[in-house]
What does this fold into?
Amino acid sequence: MEPINENQYINTNLIYEYTESLLNRINDSLERLNSKLATVIGFSGVILRFTLDLPGLNSLEDMPCYICLILKVLATLAGAIAVILSIIAFRTKQAGTVVSSRELHREWLDRKQEECRLRISRTWRNAIEELETVREKKARLLDWSLLALAATALFFALDIVLSSIFE
It folds into this structure.
């Protein structure tokens, strides 16, 4: 590696600090997504428990409410889909590989601080790209999970309304 001049020294520090900040923001964003996914799983689990108590084949004058049964099944399926999508989002692959502490000690211990910062910030750049991909996937799965949860609530409400009519 060539010697670093004064301008490169300033830029290396700027790049390092910016990259570190960006990496921290992405990790914070992933933590918030994980919290939301956990909430969706918990809420969907509670709703799934309540779908067991939904009316199925109520009847009015010997006319069974098949629509109620269909809505109960749809609510259960949508709730299960919300849980499954959230669990898939949790299970996304590990990403954000960075330079190991061992490598820094072994190969970079005797180098200038600017060179080490540059090496670290370059690996962080790759980690950021990987983490952004993971974040996008989690966010997309969370969106689909929320849609499934909304569908569950809709089917749940329709079942209750229709069963009330057939009582």
Q: What stands out?
A: The radius of gyration is 26 Å. The chain has a mean pLDDT of 82. The first helix runs from residue 6 to 51.
